[in-house]
Amino acid sequence: MARAALLLAALSTLVAAAAAGGDAPPGKIAVVGAGIGGSAVAHFLQQHFGPRVQIDVFEKGTVGGRLATISVNKQHYESGAASFHSLSLHMQDFVRLLGLRHRREVVGRSAIFGGAHLVLEETDWYLLNLFRLWWHYGIGFLRLQMWVEEVMEKFMRIYKYQAHGYAFSGVEELLYSLGEATFINMTQRSVAESLLQVGVTQRFIDDVVSAVLRASYGQSAAMPAFAGAMSLAGAQGSLWSVEGGNKLVCSGLLRLTKANVIHATVTSVTLHSKEGKALYEVGYETEQRHSSDFYDIVVIASPLHLDNSSSNLTFQGFTPPIDDLQAAYQPTVVSLVHGYLNSSYFGFPDPKLFPFASILTTDFPSFFSTLDNICPVNISANFRRKQPQEAAVWRVQSPKPLLRTQLKTLFRSYYSVQTAEWQAHPLYGSRRTLPSFALHDQLFHLSALEWAASSVEVMAVAAKNVALLAYNRWYQDLDKIDQKDLMHKVKTEL
Ligand SMILES: Cc1cc2nc3c(=O)[nH]c(=O)nc-3n(C[C@H](O)[C@H](O)[C@H](O)COP(=O)(O)OP(=O)(O)OC[C@H]3O[C@@H](n4cnc5c(N)ncnc54)[C@H](O)[C@@H]3O)c2cc1C
Ligand SMILES: *[C@@H]1O[C@H](CO)[C@@H](O)[C@H](O)[C@H]1NC(C)=O
Ligand SMILES: *[C@@H]1O[C@H](CO)[C@@H](O)[C@H](O)[C@H]1NC(C)=O
Ligand SMILES: *[C@@H]1O[C@H](CO)[C@@H](O)[C@H](O)[C@H]1NC(C)=O
Ligand SMILES: *[C@@H]1O[C@H](CO)[C@@H](O)[C@H](O)[C@H]1NC(C)=O
Ligand SMILES: *[C@@H]1O[C@H](CO)[C@@H](O)[C@H](O)[C@H]1NC(C)=O
């Protein structure tokens, strides 16, 4: 009886799918951008639609996007995203799937610099740290931890929903399903406001929270609470990175997927239709020429910046027009300096006594936000971190390129300086509404989720969501899109 009902249900789904003309898999899929978002979505799309679907990935720069390395003195160093939280489950999966390894953590202490002196120093002994934080900031520090943990715990529900095949058409729907009105509210009010409400002191926010947010987002505690909580989680958990360079995940996924990587700049997406179904023409430019091709599904896996350095991507033939995408991003400059730190600047005249590998800053001095003594992307078993009096590779993050005078302040002397200028994260506050993933039937904007929080794992979550959304829409499985009360549904399923 139950079996017959199941069979009937399966049959009716098939019939419905056939009626909608959606029984055949898509022919071709285009992905714009080969950062982690684009590489991961190519992988997930293939997982869902099967190996016969052709996936073209367009990349105007280099595979990896904001995962990138720079070579200094014959070794490679991360110049974009450096590390991930241990609970980054999709990233952990990719690394396992690709046979990559975690890079060994080389311990080093950090401190927060407040312009004139260090406001907080990390010691070798964890309990002592806790004690100091307690001594300085009281119970507020524990309240912060609880607040962050609660957000992370709810955010982690997404993995369960995704494992059950559920997708969301917009950022608001996704956040609501995880944390209801509280999460939506957290995208609208500031970190500072939310923390003060749970009893964290202004002093702790000014000294510690601001420094962490500056280091990770280049923004202040006035940024939205949700993005803030996600980055504070990164400051607490144990972090990891990929041996050989984080960008290996992107090239690895593309290779695994056998995606067709096209080195070109996509300039337009134009809507056409074929037998009542949408068909998208993707226009692209290489150095030599302009071409275009037709696709059943298109995923934009890149922010659409409001700058004029890159040619704009335009959407043609859509009603209503698609024009609400461009938004401002926060520029961040990463400078890799090979040289000798001026430890006097931080109050340590004798460089041998400078104990820190990492310095965060509060709002003063304003010309840099972090300074790290970094290790190359491939380190051997006997590798040790450079001593502070030795020449080392320091990674300095700053809102603007460092001036020579600023470099001379931070370093006694240096051999080389190499920089990468990024449009690093959304400039939170420059957009009033949470964007949608679905721009049209089968046209998606993966980077929409960056407006909730911007990290590599968040983009991997967005990639899985967009792949599921495309799949569920293609086969008209509307019960798997924007469902309410999923906590209850996934408990009773299976
Ligand atoms: C300095 C820095 C430090 C960071 N640190 C961390 C960290 O420690 N941990 C963490 O989790 N996250 C970190 N992040 C954030 C993280 O790097 C990003 O959230 C993530 O890499 C974004 O991936 P993406 O694929 O969405 O976008 P991107 O990596 O930006 O990829 C988009 C790609 O699309 C391409 N593209 C754009 N337009 C077109 C077009 N028209 N045609 C063809 N190709 C196009 C671009 O060239 C690019 O390669 C950091 C970012 C920066 C800049
Ligand atoms: C968010 O919630 C707080 C209290 O829970 C409330 O005071 C505030 O008005 C809410 N903000 C928004 C934008 O909804
Ligand atoms: C765009 O270009 C104009 C003129 O070339 C320049 O003045 C302006 O600053 C640029 N804007 C951005 C955001 O780069
Ligand atoms: C990109 O779009 C903006 C706003 O629509 C426009 O001002 C700018 O000139 C465009 N840039 C290019 C290179 O087309
Ligand atoms: C180092 O920092 C000290 C203290 O801020 C400063 O006086 C000095 O000029 C800096 N530069 C060098 C090269 O020592
Ligand atoms: C790391 O890479 C550099 C340059 O690519 C190479 O010289 C070095 O031998 C590598 N080290 C290890 C341990 O693989």
What does this structure look like?
By secondary structure, the chain is α/β, with parallel strands linked by helices. Helix content is 34%, strand content 24%. It has helices at residues 2-19, 36-49, 89-97, 126-137, 140-155, 157-163, 171-186, 191-197, 202-217, 225-236, 248-257, 404-410, 456-474, 486-492; strands spanning 28-32, 54-59, 69-72, 75-78, 84-85, 109-113, 118-121, 239-240, 260-263, 265-274, 277-285, 290-295, 297-300, 314-316, 329-341, 356-361, 370-373, 392-398, 411-426, 438-440, 443-445. It has a seven-stranded mixed β-sheet with strand order 7-6-16-17-18-15-19. Strands 9-2-1-13-21-20 form a six-stranded mixed β-sheet, covered by helices on one side. Helix 9 packs across helix 10 (225-236). 41% of the residues are buried. One 2-acetamido-2-deoxy-beta-D-glucopyranose binds next to loops. Residues 120-483 form the Prenylcysteine lyase domain. This is Prenylcysteine oxidase-like. Belongs to the prenylcysteine oxidase family.
Explain the layout of strands and helices:
Elements: H1 2-19, E1 28-32, H2 36-49, E2 54-59, E3 69-72, E4 75-78, E5 84-85, H3 89-97, E6 109-113, E7 118-121, H4 126-137, H5 140-155, H6 157-163, H7 171-186, H8 191-197, H9 202-217, H10 225-236, E8 239-240, H11 248-257, E9 260-263, E10 265-274, E11 277-285, E12 290-295, E13 297-300, E14 314-316, E15 329-341, E16 356-361, E17 370-373, E18 392-398, H12 404-410, E19 411-426, E20 438-440, E21 443-445, H13 456-474, H14 486-492
Parallel strand pairs: 1-2, 1-13, 2-9, 6-16, 10-14, 13-21
Antiparallel strand pairs: 3-4, 5-8, 6-7, 10-11, 11-12, 15-18, 15-19, 16-17, 17-18, 20-21
Helix pairs in contact: 2-11, 2-13, 5-10, 8-10, 9-10
The structure holds flavin-adenine dinucleotide (FAD) and 2-acetamido-2-deoxy-beta-D-glucopyranose (5 copies).
